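Deliverable D4.2, example record:
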Amino acid sequence: MKTIEVVAAIIRKGDKIFATQRGYGDFKDWWEFPGGKMEPGETPEQALVREIKEELSTEVSVDKLLYTIDYDYPQFHLTMHCYICSLLTEALHLNEHEAARWLSADALHSVRWLPADEVLLPMIADELDPVAAIGNGQDR
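Output generated by the structure prediction step:
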């Protein structure tokens, strides 16, 4: 099975994260974290900075690795390096996506996520509201 290695930006602003809606392909209209394929010789962090500039015409700080997902789609195996990021500039322009939303922890399930991205939701909820996670007996 073909393996595709990508990076994803979980862009955080206060108590919200940025989600984008795909405008093309098999998963058109599903939601994802922006990012894309790594190019030869790039580190994941370099690829993420490049992809966000291409997709959103903005600059991000890559703050920390949240998780690396390995997920099997029917046609390929996905390895996705997911990083918590913050905006270095406020301007965002959707160059490839048809819509975007800033979602709080309690709104994470309000959109239809791509299957691999959905794996991240409990971890992101913990990042956005660590006090609630501790109160629920979850370890960070």
